């Protein structure tokens, strides 16, 4: 009999017990659950044999909500109580929802904080709606595995920010799931391929879904998956391909601007069908019923060649983030050993062809691109649950977007740059700007741009009770910590007194995928405008500093160190600096600062002399000589 | 963070590498992966909250150590720090006029690139030039450090900052050209 039961980390204390674990792909349009059974990872079907669960929830009066296909069937006749695409609202604020609201037929409640939707089952948040989807997947897994789940791994887009990750975690908790890890979708896809094939080297994961595009570069070595960089374009996907074909159809059928919504829906449907046909055939036959008086049937053939020409510009747009991700990873296309395709839109042959050309490798398409993410999550869940104590697999993810702090003049100082491996902690010291300043506001931001107005605000808090000190004497250390799930917490501490303040960034709201993408894109195109704006802010901050310092000096020593005429001269230049600071020409501000500097030089010298004299009282000359020798 | 104790005395010992500037990146990477395997929070998915918190702190330190040693400039400064040298921007000795001239010339060249007929090609050439300068200074640092000429080595690191800054700005320009 063993006196002590000793177990290694990750190893179960009862080695033969198999813990039930699942991987969940919580998608915008469809969700999936997968598990590892007898060493094989597979997605689980519902009682009708269907694997994909539409991410739709229908709320009813006094009854349990319907989830999936049944809910989808109600969408047309009960749109207000049938909620689709809740993922788009996760971790968002009311302002974001307002911009989306026009496209969504829901009844939003106008309150501050998290958005809520009014339904017959009460006011619901996106977290609650996502929890209902997760609950349905949990039931499916538990009934098909005949037991309770010990834990799950849930996947999120690599581009999900802090608030969106936190909201996903909250939804899992609400659904009664024990979350082992949040995993980035592209990393999950790499796991699905990597473990099957024992691959080594550098992977590119190209994920083109219905409405978003993600690219991740990973290094795989002896079971360690190291994310090197991520990038994307979240306003780009299969829906855009449909739209391209639809536009072409409108042209060919000579349908003008005033087509009815009904006809447009018909055309979009036909476009989607043609796209799907062209994945397997060289040509698609498209039929439409025109809305003239005779209801004339109209038809046309779309060849593969023409289709390719239509989608080429869209594919080119996805290759730009690919190039950027490679550059961030310090690689060239020829360094990539394997390319993995994820997402339904990678079924388009032209997409595979162009991506293959770009990376100079035939892309992997062996695993169903709809299921690959859930399968990867299931493999990771199985390991984290402790079912494979000998497995060495380890996933090292990165921060997708830089995390920064607001500094003087509305600028963002980056504390953790994007693509930094997590977990990570970075501290930076700041100081007070004014004499006797007793509080400092900490504003946490995420994004690549240099001005706060162009980044996403994640949280604000205040460090209070800073003891009175002269400007620049306090030492305030701000620490950012991101854990292995990608969740951020921030703390601030005054080093000399220990005044402390801390916050975990909570999903009051977060960035939208579009925002992130847009912010990245803007950062590229407007780097030059940014530089201009930055110079202006810097000059303004510098001017403020000079003005404050001079005022304090004048107050302290102006009357006994300056003649009246000197005082007036300085005051005059101070006023003119104050005046130009409000303008927008950094050059003019700089000149005024320089001029003020010049006219105050004598004053500064006299103050220096005066303070040295004060300090030297009671010292002997030898003391200084000794100090010199020592330094 | 409550537990700030390092795993070992310094980052080189952490990865079991000799304390020298020339570094075998493959060895560093292997040692890094090995440590991650032992301490990553995923290895403690079923452990207590406290153990998981400590695992996160250790992994955070391992990541920091890896990033520091991996990047030559950070590595150089770190080695000087271990020898008691601290970069103090207030007391940085004035840079040599010759160095400043080179900087100004490079800056002018960088600013003129976007007006060139084929900016991408010119930028590539520019990056090569900057890389050569960096290599040269890193080499110089290594020699100075070995000879224990620490003050001069610190100056060398200070100068390297200028070149890395140039490289950063060249990257920003590249973004706009992509």
Automatic annotation (TrEMBL), chain B:
Q: GO biological process annotations for this chain's record?
A: [2Fe-2S] cluster assembly; protein complex oligomerization; protein folding
Which UniProt keywords are listed? Chaperone
What CDD domains does its record include?
DnaJ
The record, for PROSITE patterns, names: DNAJ_2
The record, for Pfam families, names:
DnaJ, HSCB_C
Q: What does this protein do?
A: Co-chaperone involved in the maturation of iron-sulfur cluster-containing proteins. Seems to help targeting proteins to be folded toward HscA.
Q: According to its UniProt record, which protein family does this protein belong to?
A: Belongs to the HscB family.
List the protein's name. Answer: Co-chaperone protein HscB homolog
